[in-house]
Amino acid sequence: MANNILKGKKGIIFGALNEQSIAWKVAERAHEEGATFVLTNAPIAMRMGEIKKLAEKTGSEIIPADATNLEDLENLISKSMEILGGKVDFILHSIGMSVNVRKGLHYTEQNYDYTIKGFDVSALSFHKVLQTAMKLDAINEWGSVLALSYIAAQRTFPDYNDMADNKAYLESIARSFGYHYGVAKKVRVNTISQSPTMTTAGSGVKGFNEFLNYAEEMSPLGNAPAEACANYCIAMFSDLTKYVTMQNLFHDGGFSSTGVTQSVIEKFKG
Ligand SMILES: NC(=O)c1ccc[n+]([C@@H]2O[C@H](COP(=O)([O-])OP(=O)(O)OC[C@H]3O[C@@H](n4cnc5c(N)ncnc54)[C@H](O)[C@@H]3O)[C@@H](O)[C@H]2O)c1
Hints:
Elements: E1 10-14, H1 22-32, E2 36-40, H2 43-46, H3 51-58, E3 61-62, H4 70-84, E4 88-93, H5 99-102, H6 112-135, E5 139-149, H7 163-185, E6 188-194, H8 200-203, H9 208-217, H10 226-237, E7 248-251, H11 262-266
Parallel strand pairs: 1-2, 1-4, 2-3, 4-5, 5-6, 6-7
Nicotinamide-adenine-dinucleotide is lined by residues 14-15, 17, 21-23, 41-42, 45, 66-68, 94-97, 121, 148-150, 194, 196-197, 199-202.
């Protein structure tokens, strides 16, 4: 299903860890649609080596960068422009991690060093990417920057823990930076709020399987798969969505607008 809608476009894709990663699917689809891009991930994630397969498949170079580290980001963005032969047209921020979740700490019993680390990785890194790109004037006019979010930013899902707060901040950055980057350079900034998806980051959340099944039953179209999320990202990187900016876009099979479904009601019949 390739239509070359990203023909000639250049980009940077953060966060492809393995074949399940949403960023992995976006890279595959961006390649099919004619884009060229640099792949990046935290140096520690590189050790797993999976990303090399993706780089070969998509003809991409890999530049390691810790998205919380400004020096790494400057190096990544300036080298990407050298490799790609100019400014980029799109950036995908597909990064998330909570140390409190990893260590099994309850939301009401956080270790604040962990909280700050998770916030830096999951939310502030988006601002750092945008600020560095702006400083280096690295994005073409009408360029498109996306981060991935989750509906726990608006509504409470208890086991999502401090990631809920991180996602709320992430979505706020899309609005605030989207304003400034829009005025300065006509660059657009959005978040896509994706259905629960079976990935390394997703399955780290307690009770994830049950939760995935619940969301499936609460979504008129069912949960949106990672491949469909990738397609939405491609549409957002293309010129077909030029005037969409500062939005949090739900990609969730209708979950966010559904109060209850018949199949869920059935489970409560007396
Ligand atoms: N899986 C879900 O259910 C779901 C739902 C909605 C939104 N999301 C979001 O989608 C995004 C991608 O997650 P995924 O589900 O594909 O899982 P994933 O585990 O494949 O991707 C998370 C990525 O973040 C990277 N990362 C962590 N720390 C980093 C750092 N310091 N610098 C650079 N990269 C770093 C990891 O190496 C990994 O590649 C995340 O923002 C996640 O919160 C996921």
